[in-house]
Amino acid sequence: MTSRTYSGRCLALLGALASAGCYKATFVEDPSALDREPTHAEWNDHFLLGLTGEHAHDGAKLCPHGVGVVRTRGDTLTGLVTIGTLGIYAPRRVELTCREVETARNDEVKP
């Protein structure tokens, strides 16, 4: 097998593995916010295939009535960036959806 054929197969395998790794995690505080588009979206910087790096978002500053939904995910674009940098830089997308009006949370309701 030539080195060119071997390199092509390795690249195809790496692409297949990276495209299978898309994910999404959703944290819901206000179920009515699930039907709305995200209010804020940005990339979080992670490195070494996502093993290092973290970022805190100040929901109180971004959403005056509180955060309704937080989604974090990897998608095609972040996957391509991760592949293009050979896993050194592995961004993740974070989306915040604000509450429309301030509502009482379960832990704030008093009998």
Task: Describe the overall structure.
This protein is of the alpha+beta class and 111 residues long. It has three helices and four strands; from the N terminus they run αββαβαβ. The mean pLDDT is 78. It is elongated, with a radius of gyration of 19 Å. Helix content is 27%, strand content 23%. The protein has one domain.
Mind sketching the topology for me?
Blueprint: H1 3-19, E1 23-28, E2 40-44, H2 59-62, E3 67-74, H3 76-84, E4 92-98
Antiparallel strand pairs: 1-3, 2-4, 3-4
**Would you tell me the structural class of the helices and strands?**
alpha+beta
Radius of gyration computed on alpha carbons: 19 Å
Helix content: 25-40%
Encode the helix/strand succession as letters.
HEEHEHE
| Largest sheet, strands/sense/barrel | 4 strands, antiparallel
How many structural domains are formed by the residues? 1
Q: Approximately what portion of the residues adopt beta-strand conformation?
A: 15-25%
Gap between N and C termini, in Å? 74 Å
Number of helices: 3
Shape: elongated
* Extended strand count: 4
Provide the low-confidence segments as ranges: none
Task: Give the overall average pLDDT.
Answer: 78
| Biggest sheet strand line-up | 1-3-4-2
Can you give keywords for this protein?
111 residues, alpha+beta, 4 strands, 27% helix, elongated
Summarize the structure.
The chain has three helices and four strands; from the N terminus they run αββαβαβ. The protein is an alpha+beta fold and about 110 residues long. It has one domain (about 20-100).
